Amino acid sequence: MDRAQPRPDLTGDLEHLVRLRAGVLLPQTRVPALNDSLALLLPIAALLPLTAALLILQRSPFQTLVLRGILGAVATLIYALLGAADVALTEALVGTLLSTTLYAIALRSSMVFRLTLVDGSQLDDSRRALLEQWMQQAYLRLELVEDDPHGWLSPEGQLRIESPRLLAQLDSLSGAGDWRATGGELVALSDEGATPPGRGQP
Fold first, then answer.
1. From CA 32, how far away is CA 29, in angstroms rounded?
2. Which of 52, 60, 131, 180 has a CA positioned 20 to 30 A from the CA of residue 158?
3. Is the Cα torsion angle 137, 142, 148, 150 positive or negative in sign?
4. How many CB atoms neighbour CB 30 within 10 A?
5. CA separation, residue 29 to residues 13, 86, 200 (Å)
6. In which band, very low, low, confident or very high, does the pLDDT at 131 lie, cut at 50, 70 and 90?
7. Phi then psi for 160, rounded to 5 degrees?
8. Other CB atoms within 10 A of residue 12 CB
9. Which domain holds residue 158?
C-alpha cells in the first residue's frame, strides 16, 4: 500500500505557488514581478535611446561601428533581464556579432579613395603623405589604381574628382588648403570638359 504523500505547507510563504504534477502537490517559486527589477531595468533601458542618438550623430564610421556594438549589447542585456533568453541570444549573435562583422567588412572594402596617375605623372613621398593625411580626414584610405578610379592626378598637381558630393566633402576639409598651398588644385571632372583617361576609349 502506497504511503500517503505529505502535503506541503501552503500558509507560510506567499512567494510560493503550488503546482499539481502527477497527482502530487509541489511547491513552485514564483517568477519575480517586473516591479522587483524595475530599479535595475530602467537605467539600462535609458541607455538605448542615448546610444541610438550618438550612433546617428556620429560622423566617424569606425566610431559608429563601436556604438553599434554597444547598442546591441545593451539590447541583449535588457532582453536577458526580462527573461527572454532566446531573444537575447539571437540579438547577441545576429543583431550584434554578425551585423557588426558585416559592417566592418563593408567599411574595409568601401572606404577607399581610388586614384589614377595620368600622363606619366609621378607621386613623390611628400605629396603622397599629404594626400593620405587629407583622405584620412574623410576616413578614406588612398589607393593607386589604373581602372575605375574616383579621381585623376595630373603631373601639374591637378586633382580631378568625378563625384560632386566627394568633391564638396574633400574641399571642406583642411587638407584641401594644405594641398593648394603646395601648388595643387582640386577641380570637378566636369570642369575639364573632356572624358577622363581610360573612359570612353575603344
1. 9
2. 60
3. positive
4. 10
5. 10, 21, 76
6. very high
7. -105, 125
8. 8
9. 112-191
User: What's the DSSP call for residue 24?
Assistant: E
Mapping DSSP to helix (H, G, I), strand (E, B) and coil, where does residue 197 land? coil
Up-side HSE of residue 80: CA atoms within 13 Å toward CB?
A: 13
Is the same domain home to 116 and 180? yes
Mapped onto helix, strand or coil, the DSSP state of residue 141 is strand
Same-domain pairing of 183 and 117: yes
- Is 198 among the domain residues? no
Identity of the amino acid at 52: A
- In sequence order, which ranges of the chain are alpha helices (DSSP H)? 38-57, 61-81, 85-90, 99-110, 125-137, 164-171, 174-181
**15 occurs within a structural domain:** no
Predicted TM-score of the model (pTM): 0.63
**Domain end among 109, 124, 148:** 109
Residue 146 grid cell: 589604373
Looking at residue 197, its pLDDT comes to: 54
